[in-house]
Structures are given as structure tokens and as C-alpha cells.
Specification:
83 residues, mainly alpha
Length: 83
């Protein structure tokens, strides 16, 4: 039981860290887009693929947060069911 509780706490902490990372990535994305617009430059990866590396990082981090949230919800549901 203690191991399960520890695992839940660690998973919640990882999700919180991922949420902080997502906020930082979004802020970096805004700054990058502003710089590119101001300097008249283009994001070459976005030109080629349709998405920037920051777009990909934001999307990946969002998927990670969704996965962690599902894991936490499943753990909490299994705890309720086992009582």
C-alpha cells in the first residue's frame, strides 16, 4: 500500500513538472515567433514540415500530461474499487 501511494505521489509530481515545462515551452514559442516576425526570418522546419520544433515539443508535452492524468485517474479509481 505504501508503495502504491508513493507511486501516485511521484506520478502527480511528474505531471506537475510536465505542466511547468509546457508553460515554459509555450512562452518560448511566443518569444520565438515574435523574434522571427521582428527579424523577418522564417522557421525553416515549419516551412518544410508545417510545424516548428516548438510546436512538436508542445504537442508531445500535452500528450505526456494527458497520459499521466489518465494514469492518476486509473490509480484513484482502482483505489476506490479496492475499498
Amino acid at each position: 500500500m505504501q508503495d502504491r501511494l508513493r507511486l501516485l505521489k511521484e506520478t502527480v509530481q511528474v505531471r506537475e513538472n510536465a505542466e511547468s515545462l509546457l508553460r515554459a515551452l509555450i512562452e518560448a514559442q511566443v518569444q520565438s515567433e515574435a523574434f522571427l516576425a521582428q527579424s523577418g526570418q522564417r522557421d525553416h522546419l515549419r516551412v518544410v514540415t508545417g510545424k516548428s520544433s516548438l510546436d512538436n515539443a508542445v504537442a508531445s508535452t500535452k500528450r505526456m500530461i494527458e497520459t499521466l492524468t489518465r494514469q492518476i485517474e486509473q490509480f484513484q479509481a482502482s483505489e476506490v474499487m479496492s475499498r
